[in-house]
Write a structure and sequence with these properties.
about 625 residues, alpha+beta, 19 helices, PGBD
């Protein structure tokens, strides 16, 4: 299911499929709107802020990879105060809209004024202070047409987008009858193998810390040393991939979750980074549309995305730079003299496809859209003591209602029933991972329903589908993942690997011997010295070793003094082993040697005589024999 294929006749489920990767935000009010609350609202108790659940995206939008510069995203701010927080009353009430919609046609979007775009420095991510001030001045001076309250007649909205029906791809439809195969389509076996490998790596890295914690918690007569605990932990068998999926199958949510998860670590830069990855342009679908709400929206972001071939439909905070002041409404609630459904809008002079408008619902709602036509439409509302009514509105309002409502349905499916993320409490990164699994599960089930609909068969109920998936997960065996290669991590070749010595530390041996009446630590041959030994470079002995690189009692001995140069830099053997040899995993084949870790003997053996000592002993023996022979002659 691709997010770019948005249907003109999509139901809530279809909208959920299309928009589950799109950004969402809280409906926060600006400070100016809060100051204009009427007296009736002031007398009421402060309402509890209700925030919609947020999706967890695949890409961590708050993490800038090492091959990117964080400054590249610092210029997307609105440069206005965004600290006005309130309840979500300014958001339009969700309801059923009209199913009729303008037919989308292929074509080019309306052109933008080149001089205005040049002033905004669109596409330039690194700006000086002077250029930022120039951009802000251009936004403040944004020209808009005279406001109008008349619907447009004719025309097509979102030029360049096609009207192709969103549906599962053929290879996904072929798997839709099996919950496990459908889940593995979204989260393939290679991904689970990678997760298993990284889990085992992390477990090995935490052995020292866990051993220390277990040692401190010990009570009673028998107390293990930290080293003994480390050895015991290292003897545990590593995790296997199918075991992780068994745990996923055994997780369950014991209650419905009514609490809304909210993540504040998002913004305009997150939108740009996400959409560059998710909605990559292609010849078949050159244009896309995203639905956002007021926390994200800004004039600059709308123009930036329009240049990327992405339309924006969303609400906006009225204090954003460049927003038309003539369409702003200062009154907090609709007066009785203004009919519900009244609106006014204007178009940008420099960017004709960008529309700013205000529409009266129970309260004023402000929108900023690119690519819409302000044709007439209607939306359903329920009024107390009256019942259901039909309220006129521009077509952009129904677009927002239908597509944003699809995101809410997707989140309801993800967070309120059968949710792994809310099933138990874990560390934050595990909760994020389970949130991604929840998204894959919802997408898999929606794909099953859509495939059944296309095949004109009866789909499984959601509970039945999850029950079958659980049985399939618990039946997985090691051979199901035999020969599967782990998925390469994104940007693994671009990122610099963290040196292994950050988690490895040299430790000094506690093996003591008495030499000539003096107690000393026993020294053993350094592994790196043995590898780099030549006729001109001798090998050294050391009392230091790396516990992480050792195997039980077989220690990995490494010099902790700078004794040689490697690749033009003076380093200790410990640094060479971990930084250059990757803890023994990347020993250059040119050395033609291998490292063997040997266990120490129970008792110290007799030291062998050196060649010089043997030579001196032989000379002494010769002298003694000569003296004996001379004494015999004298007699």
């Amino acid at each position: 299911m691709t997010p770019s294929n948005m249907s003109t006749e999509a139901s809530h489920f279809e909208a959920a499929i299309n928009l589950q990767l799109l950004s969402k935000a809280s409906g926060l009010e600006s400070a100016a709107e809060l100051d204009d609350e009427d007296e009736e609202e002031k007398e009421k108790a402060t309402p509890v802020r209700r925030l919609r659940p947020r999706t967890v995206v695949k890409y961590d939008v708050n993490f800038v990879p090492e091959d990117e510069d964080g400054e590249d995203y610092e210029s997307f701010g609105s440069s206005e105060s965004d600290e006005g927080f309130g309840d979500e009353e300014d958001e339009p009430e969700r309801g059923e809209g009209d199913d009729d919609e303008g037919v989308l046609t292929e074509g080019d979007a309306e052109q933008m004024d080149e001089a205005f775009i040049a002033l905004l420095k669109i596409g330039n991510t690194r700006l000086t202070k002077a250029e930022l001030k120039e951009r802000q001045a251009a936004l403040r001076a944004t020209a808009w047409t005279t406001t109008s309250s008349q619907f447009d007649v004719g025309g097509s909205a979102y030029t360049g987008m096609d009207d192709e029906m969103a549906q599962p791809v053929p290879e996904l439809r072929a798997l839709a009858d099996s919950p496990l195969q459908t889940l593995l389509y979204f989260m393939p076996k290679s991904l689970w193998v990678l997760i298993n490998d990284q889990s085992n790596l992390y477990a090995g890295q935490q052995v020292g810390r866990r051993a220390q914690v277990l040692h401190e918690r010990q009570r009673g007569r028998r107390v293990e040393t930290v080293t003994q605990i480390q050895r015991r932990l290292k003897l545990k068998n590593p995790y296997e991939t199918h075991e992780i999926l068994h745990v996923i199958g055994l997780l369950r949510n014991t209650r419905d979750n009514d609490e809304a998860a909210f993540d504040h670590k998002t913004g305009a830069a997150a939108v740009v980074r996400n959409l560059k990855i998710v909605l990559q342009s292609n010849e078949r679908h050159p244009w896309h549309a995203v639905v956002v709400d007021r926390f994200y929206s800004s004039v600059l972001l709308a123009i930036e995305l329009l240049g990327m071939g992405i339309y924006v439909i969303g609400t906006i905070m009225t204090n954003r730079l460049g927003y038309d002041a003539n369409v702003k409404e200062d009154r907090a609630s609709r007066p009785a003299s203004i009919p519900r459904g009244t609106f006014k809008f204007s178009r940008s002079v420099a960017v004709p496809s960008m529309v700013a408008f205000q529409w009266w619902d129970r309260k004023p709602v402000h929108y900023l859209c690119t690519g819409p036509m302000m044709t007439e439409s209607s939306i359903g509302r329920k009024v107390k003591q009256v019942g259901a009514i039909t309220v006129p509105c521009p077509n952009a309002v129904t677009d927002y209602q239908r597509w944003m409502g699809g995101v809410d349905v997707h989140d309801q499916l993800r967070l309120q029933r059968y949710s792994l993320q809310t099933s138990t409490k874990f560390k934050y990164y595990k909760s994020l991972f389970l949130g991604l699994v929840d998204m894959a599960l919802v997408n898999a089930y929606l794909s099953h329903k859509e495939a059944a609909k296309m095949a004109e068969t009866q789909p499984m109920k959601r509970g039945e589908w999850f029950t079958l998936l659980q049985n399939q997960l618990l039946q997985l065996k090691p051979q199901d993942f035999a020969g599967v290669v782990a998925t390469p991590t994104i940007g693994s070749q671009k990122r610099t690997r963290a040196p292994a010595r950050h988690t490895h530390a040299p430790e000094q041996s506690e093996d003591w011997v008495v030499v000539s009446g003096v107690q000393k630590r026993r020294q053993r041959s350094c592994k790196v010295c043995a590898l780099l030994r030549t006729s001109k470079a001798k090998s050294f002995a050391t009392t230091y070793y790396c516990e992480r690189c050792s195997v039980d009692d077989a220690k990995c001995w490494l010099c902790n003094k700078i004794r040689r140069e490697y690749k033009g830099a003076a380093k200790t053997c410990f640094e060479i082993w971990h930084d250059d040899f990757d803890a023994g995993e990347s020993i250059p084949p040119s050395l033609g040697k291998r490292v063997v870790l040997r266990r120490p003997g129970k008792k110290a053996g007799v030291r062998k005589k050196t060649r010089r000592e043997l030579q001196l002993r032989a000379e002494d023996a010769d002298d003694e024999s000569e003296s004996d022979s001379e004494g015999g002659i004298d007699e």
